[in-house]
Amino acid sequence: MSDVKTDVLAEAQRIVTGARRAAYGSPEDNFRRISDLWNTHMLNTGRAAVFQPRDVATLMILMKLARLAESPDHRDSIVDIMGYAACYAEMVLPPGA
Questions:
Q1: Model confidence pLDDT, tens digit, residues 21-58
Q2: Most buried of the four, 12, 18, 74, 87, by CB within 10 Å?
Q3: At what angle do helices 4-17 and 75-92 cross, to 10 degrees?
Q4: Mean per-residue pLDDT for 54-64?
Q5: Phi and psi dihedrals of 73, rounded to 5?
Q6: Under 8 Å CB-to-CB from 28, ≥6 apart: which residues?
Q7: Are 54 and 91 a contacting pair, CB within 8 Å?
Q8: Mean pLDDT, to the nearest integer, of 66-76?
Q9: CB-based contact 4:74 (threshold 8 Å)
Q10: How far is C-alpha 50 from the chain's CA centre?
Q11: What is the per-residue DSSP string for the chain?
Q12: Residue 1 pLDDT greater than 70, yes or no
């Protein structure tokens, strides 16, 4: 019998270290672009914000949690939360931590 924890962790790892990294670059670089766009949007709408790349990971996790409130068994959202958490860890933890 398959262990669901192992399966979803492995899927999240494949996603964040494979196709997504190849398509979008490192989480730090990609989330920096996103945070820059979010900051520009906030400033253009008259609101102050200073998003950092790690904030992108945090806010995306919150978005996925909001979706799980409606569909608690949606596997893709669960996998994505794990992937965003792994990206967050890569940005804030020193190697080997």
A1: 889 999 999 999 999 999 999 999 999 889 999 999 99
A2: 87
A3: 60
A4: 97
A5: -105, 20
A6: 53, 90, 91
A7: yes
A8: 97
A9: no
A10: 18
A11: ---HHHHHHHHHHHHHHTHHHHHH--HHHHHHHHHHHHHHHHHHTT------HHHHHHHHHHHHHHHHHH-TT-HHHHHHHHHHHHHHHHHHSPTT-
A12: no
- Rounded Cα distance between 1 and 95, Å, is 34
Which pTM value belongs to this model?
0.89
Distance from chain centroid for Cα 76: 13
User: Backbone phi, then psi, for 95, in 5-degree steps?
Assistant: -55, 135
Whether the CB-CB separation of 31 and 91 falls below 8 Å is answered with yes
Give the whole-angstrom CA distance, residue 49 versus residue 31. Answer: 15
- Per-residue confidence (pLDDT) for residue 96, from 0 to 100: 82
Mean pLDDT of the chain: 94
Average pLDDT of the segment spanning 16-20: 89
**Residue in this structure with the two tokens 């893709």, named with its chain if needed:** 76
